[in-house]
Amino acid sequence: MKKAIAVIGEGITEKYYIESLKGLSPFDIRPQELGRKASSLKRLEKNIQDSIKTGYDEVYCLIDMDGKRDGKNKINYDSLKNKYHGIIHGNKKRGIQCKVVFIETERCTELWFLYHFTQSAITKEFRSYCELEKELRKYRPQYEKTEKYFKSVGSLHKEFTKKCEPKGSLEKAIENSKVSIKSKERDNRDYSYSEIHLLFEGLKIENT
User: Fold this and answer.
1) Is the backbone of residue 110 left (phi > 0), alpha (psi -120 to 50) or beta?
2) Domain coordinates of the chain in residue numbers?
């Protein structure tokens, strides 16, 4: 039986991106959508709990860190992460063993998309989503965070790795992601980093 993996995304970007990864992994990937109240940590926790009860082997949570860097939002998020991240949950007697992994990106998943094209975004601080989207449009001019756009491209993964100018590369994105974490820890900064390379390692998706 294939390993069953739930991938929880906070918004529509993650929903369509996760869908585009289905079939690239040797495992059974099940996208989980939070819906309109994507910022609700209570909704995220319920989705995690439901995934554990369902019997998934692993649960990956893709987290946008904009809005979770300080104040009450940070406290609540850190509490939820400490409760689930990196821990095996379930019921041994019932044969349920589920590992939950939080995967963070600051500001949001669009930074990971940008990593497919350039190293310059690794340490650059984006003060708003609009700044980040403007940078991404240098490489994919039509990009916008809308269902209309996501449906029009068919596969978000292919959109950022297709062989057209300017070319994107999953290999480059993974390397930039790894470097962003190393430089974040070295410089003790809380902006411009992505752990999404860990998702690809967990799903065993290679450069395609």
Assistant:
1) alpha
2) 4-203
